[in-house]
Design a protein that fits this description.
Chain A: Pfam families: Thiolase_C_1, Thiolase_N. The complex is a heterodimer of chains A (394) and B (193). With 394 residues, chain A is of the alpha/beta class. Chain A has 15 helices and 11 strands. Helix content of chain A is 35%, strand content 18%. In chain A, a hairpin with a 4-residue loop joins strand 10 and strand 11. The two termini of chain A are 26 Å apart. The chains are: A alpha/beta (394), B alpha+beta (193).
Chain lengths: 394, 193
């Protein structure tokens, strides 16, 4: 069954990308971080803010900043003053949803140049930003049980492990790979040379989740410039095309769901693949940036993205298939586990990485061969959304 | 405005974006003492209505019963109850009294509070599939009646697929809340599903 009515006629390209540093705690405000990334994206696209016709801003819960209507508050840093401005917000999925929103603005024919910015400053929330997540649980039938955010991940990881007989050693390897990949990322917050033993020797926070299987608290921002085909060809000699986008949400009754397999990610992926003309993802996708806020999540998402068989991603990882030099490099940036996880910005950082990888300017992080098509994915809300974008050189 | 004690970091690496990245990382000491910051503790109060379906579910818990609802169109029996089928988008057709037994779909052994303070006695959250529902349908609750505090000790007694039974508060102490079930405990023998 087709997931889209028809293939959109107007093509959209990424022509510039920018980042701030990712940090545990920044002196810089959210506006300042957004400005750093946005101005860098404009600069690399060779344009100025006055050329931008509309702005998309992604930033996750207001509760992190303690600022209600945080999207409007960040407007100035995102370059949105006096322009059509949209806050794109689907929790952790926001980073990739931001480029989907920007794509809609350009593909629809409304605008030719759109700036997409994603910012997160998690460190303001005291004593721990996990407090901002306590209110995602149902107020009547869940919160009286005293839940915390880690439960969601530890429960899902355990279901995934039990369903397919996966060992924690296999999952720890994700932390090892991504923290290692991040050593070549100048924005990285938690890059390191570690072994599986180091990961499993770190404290158990919520078994089966160990401390080093969790992405850090981060402040940071990312941005890209989107352009219509005609404008992209004029401004850039190597535009990277958004070939397909997809997103999908599953029920909020998360205890009624198959926690071992993210069906909503599969649906989002097939929507994006269909638009991109991808019928055999494992052959046609050359580099992947799946969402990795927790170690097992990368594996879970690679399966949802149809890039590994169900329950087989850990084995593929162990034999090096997802290494930067492997058959299908996954998180060559270092991902959230290595570069850091300023929520919305982390998702857009993955788009930035595809932009550099597909332009073959990723330097020390460059995946070998001539990657022509990549996929980025983010995840969030109440463990229920998959947001997917397929980017390519054509 | 904060005094800019922190040195701007200018990371350069043989990898994109190739330009110095901006940002002023603070360490804990700088944050706590040297730069200006303002604090605020919000006080917000809410009184949440339970809704039509969950009110009846909570009344059931007070009576020591777990209720589910059934949609005849899709044939699903689900809990927690809801007023309408979210798939068929029509009212649910009937209320069903489920058993107070079930199966552990997944569980965790949590050693930290939400603000990452250590817990000496771990919490064991679990998704419990309630007997009498459609496959893989359940809700979040806690597992109890388990000896020991270490991962090894607890995993010896708790596993995915384990049959469990609700342990209720004494009737006089129930208040029509999810916590009227204290926890679910492992059962050795169980009647046929």
């Amino acid at each position: 069954m087709s997931l889209i009515k028809r293939k959109p006629q107007r093509r959209v390209a990424v022509i510039g990308a920018g980042l701030s540093l990712f940090m545990r705690r920044a002196l810089d405000t959210g506006k300042e971080l957004a400005y750093y990334a946005a101005s860098q994206a404009l600069q690399t696209a060779g344009i100025r803010l006055k050329d931008i016709q509309a702005v998309v801003m992604a930033t996750a819960p207001d509760a992190f900043d303690g600022v209600h209507m945080k999207g409007e508050w960040l407007l100035d840093g995102a370059g949105g003053v006096g322009k059509p401005y949209l806050r794109a917000y689907v929790g952790g999925g926001s980073g990739v949803f931001s480029i989907i929103s920007g794509w809609m603005m350009v593909a629809s024919g409304l605008f030719d140049l759109v700036l997409v910015v994603a910012e997160e400053k998690m460190s303001s929330c005291q004593p721990h930003p996990q407090g901002a997540f306590l209110t995602i649980f149902d107020h009547t039938i869940e919160r009286p049980l005293g839940p915390n955010l880690l439960w969601i991940f530890s429960l899902e990881q355990q279901r995934y492990m039990a369903a397919y007989g996966i060992r924690n050693e296999d999952i720890a390897l994700v932390s090892v790979k991504n923290k290692h990949n991040a050593l070549a990322h100048p924005a990285a917050q938690v890059a390191a040379h570690l072994t599986v033993k180091d990961i499993l020797d770190s404290d158990v926070v919520a078994w089966p989740v160990h401390r080093l299987m969790v992405s850090p608290i981060s402040d940071g921002a990312a941005a890209v410039v989107l352009a219509s085909e005609q404008v992209a060809r004029r401004l850039s000699d190597r535009p990277i095309w958004i070939q397909g986008v997809g997103w999908c949400l599953d029920t909020s009754y998360w205890g009624n769901r198959d926690l071992a397999y993210p069906r909503y990610v599969e649906k989002a992926a097939w929507m994006a693949y269909e638009m991109a003309g991808v019928t055999e993802p494992r052959k046609q996708i050359h580099v992947a940036e799946p969402y990795d806020p927790f170690a097992y999540k990368e594996l879970h998402h690679l399966e949802g993205l149809q890039l590994a068989d169900r329950g087989q991603a850990p084995e593929d990882l162990a034999r090096g298939r997802f290494d930067r030099t492997g058959e299908l490099p996954s998180c060559p940036s270092g991902g959230l586990m290595g570069v850091g996880n300023p929520i919305a910005a982390a998702g857009l950082m993955k788009i930035c990485e595809l932009f550099w990888q597909l332009r073959r300017e990723a330097g020390a992080r460059q995946v070998p061969g001539n990657p022509e098509r990549g996929v980025a994915q983010a995840w969030g809300d109440l463990m229920q959304i998959g947001t997917v974008a397929v980017l390519g050189v054509r | 405005m904060a005094r800019t004690r922190a040195k701007p970091a200018t990371a350069r690496a043989p990898a994109p974006p190739y330009v110095p990245l901006r940002g002023h990382p603070l360490n804990e000491e700088e944050f706590r003492g040297q730069v200006g910051s303002t604090t605020w503790v919000p006080r917000l109060e809410y009184a949440w209505d339970a809704g039509v379906a969950i009110s009846r579910f909570l009344d059931g818990l007070r009576e020591g019963k777990i209720y589910g609802v059934r949609c005849r169109r899709c044939g699903r029996t689900v809990t927690p109850p809801r007023a309408f089928c979210e798939l068929d988008f029509k009212p649910m057709d009937e209320w069903i009294e489920l058993r107070d037994t079930g199966t552990i779909n997944t569980f965790s052994i949590c050693y930290v509070t939400w603000d990452m303070k250590p817990l000496r006695v771990p919490q064991i959250p679990a998704v419990i599939e309630i007997d009498g529902t459609s496959p893989r349908v359940g809700f979040l609750h806690l597992v109890g009646g388990v000896r020991g505090r270490t991962v090894t000790e607890i995993r010896r007694q708790v596993r995915v697929g384990l049959p469990v039974r609700a342990v209720w508060k004494p009737p006089a102490k129930r208040e029509g809340a999810i916590t009227d079930i204290l926890h679910f405990e492992p059962v050795r023998k169980r009647a046929n599903r």
